[in-house]
Amino acid sequence: MKKCGHFKDLILADYIDGELDKNSTRGLESHLLDCSDCRAFLKEVKDNAARPWKQTPRQPVPEELWGAIKQRIEHENETAGPFADFMDKLKGFIVFPRMVPVFASLMLMFFAGSIALNTIQVQQTQAKDQGEYLVSLLGPAASSVQAEDNDLGTPIEHYFL
Amino acid sequence: MEDIAKDTLIRASQGDVQAFEEVYKASSSFVYNVALRVVNNREDALEVAQEVFMIIYHKLKTFRFESSFKTWAYRITANHAINFAKKHSRAKTVPYEDAFGEGAVANEFEAKIDQEHHSRLVESLLAELNPDQRACVVLRDIQGLSYEEIARALNININTVRSRLKRSREKLLSLKKTIQEAGRS
Fold first, then answer.
1. What is the domain partition of chain B in residue ranges?
2. Chain A touched by B10 (CB under 8 Å)
3. Least C-beta-crowded within 10 Å: which of A133, B58, B74, B165?
4. The listed CATH number (1.10.10.10, 1.10.1740.10, 3.30.420.270, 3.30.450.80) that belongs to domain B6-184
């Protein structure tokens, strides 16, 4: 019965739609030769779930449809400004999904940049603090040199120069 | 849907109304018939078809021929019709008992059915399905698209196409069984 269930699934979609591969089709058709229940099911599906659609005629397109469309196009062309066409083309380029990777990259660059800048500032502050600490260890003489000539740069430069 | 020359599409995309009329002539039967079967109502189908062609007219300006025009038009039509059907779900126009029940022609599916009766039958059967299932049945069984084309048109997986078709058919079989049992009792 389990086997029949599998074949009935195939009958309901791929087989009657002609989408089943050759091997599976052979397997199913050989099962159909032996199984009257599946044969009856195939007939039922063909008659009641597939055939009604196949006989459906195409309905003719109502003539008023093109008239209504043409009228809307002409109305739009009359009311549209001189830049309407340009704006339409522009909209095509500024499609949001296409901009997502660009925005994402910009945001990443911004965050990476701000983290790097922050690190440099921290390092500079630490160097300055260390320099001041060394100068303070050298006593008032070094401090006075720093006081006399502030143009030389950091306290460490004062010390070595 | 008939093939449309690239040159015609380019001219239509530049606002040439005559070229757009050619696009319309090649695709209107598909667009209207899919809309008609998915929304299952003539007036609504006209509205949907009109909107679909206005979308095509506007979006042709940015169509880059990366996919085929047919696939693109299938997608716009199917999606627009499904969305419309979901928003405006109406009562069934024909009770399915009329199609399958005692009033139906004897040996309905075996005999040659007259057109009017058949149209009512199709309407009533479609009304039993939800818009997603309806779109798959219409594209496959009425328009003859392959599973792959349906998957691309509806932007869904092939297995989803398969399962929607399977469920639709199971629903129709169980419907028929219910009516036959009700007829006997």
1. 6-184
2. no
3. A133
4. 1.10.1740.10
